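Q: Focus on the chain.
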Amino acid sequence: MFLRNYWYVAATGAEISRKPVGRMILGDPIVLFRAEDGAPVAFEDRCPHRHLPLSMGKLVGDTLQCLYHGLRFARDGHCVYIPGQEQIPQGAKVRCYPVVERYHWIWIWMGDPALADSAAITDFHWLDDPNWGAKGAYLHVDANWQLVVDNLLDLTHLAFVHDTTIGNLALAEHAKVKVARTPDGVVVTRWIIDQEPPPTFKKVGGFRGNVDRWQIIDFTPPAFLRLDVGATPTGTGAPEGRRVGGINMRNLNAITPETETTSHYFWGQAHDFDVKNAETTNKIFEQIQTAFLEDVAVFSAQQGNLNLIQNPPQIDIAADAGTIQARRILARLYREEQAEARGAAAE
């Protein structure tokens, strides 16, 4: 199940250069590169002549040259040169996708180009805001994208999967949880009051006693999750909005489907304390990366079981409230998009 009329992250800005990069997105092969002015460009990764991936080719000025027979395609996707002939067939063109570079990520619109409005790109400003220290990364995941969304909406798993870094049993046994629908998504708010901080919080926050800890998960379709997380010493007023004397961070996640069973996972970690200290940023990033690699192992194992048994029986528990709401939203949006597509095809 893929939602197409949305912006997705196709790559990090650092990944895309004058050397073409091939990437599968929503089941479609895409080639990405930078034009001479530095602007990102995205084509379908298939030459219309004999179907070789254009990502195997090279750039000649602002044209992408196919490795096989030398056809060259301009930034708008049209073939502008065929060696040995002057006439260019009308069908000598490739699909060109709208792309935008923002927040150190390359965003691509996979649906109807007429609907591509860059104002609709989800806000991840923490990744390039000078008032925040931040670092991001990319992970390839051998699992369906919705398994990653499920994981981020139910953070009780931190107590068991990540007990050496960002989790402890208090997350599962002492959290006060509220799930709320928004016009576009779901917000899951968790407070863990007067409990021992997990190992990572002790390392980066220097806590010596109990803390009041928050996790506020903002889910926006199709697969964007922005987590407001942090802690302050118990009793200093964090639940009332006074976040002083502790740590305040954002965990930022953009999941892009590759196929029905694999995903691209772009993520970053930002903090608003000691923002100019690269050592602090790296220390936080490394702790979170350790946890995320543990998550990737979980996703892959889940998908392995799902590959063996189609639609196995499944139960839900109280901690799944946010996940269930998100799945319902995604299913509705998919039905609506498919109905619109059928209507357009019938006209």
User: Anything to note?
Assistant: Helices lie at 145-153, 158-161, 170-173, 199-205, 278-308, 321-346.
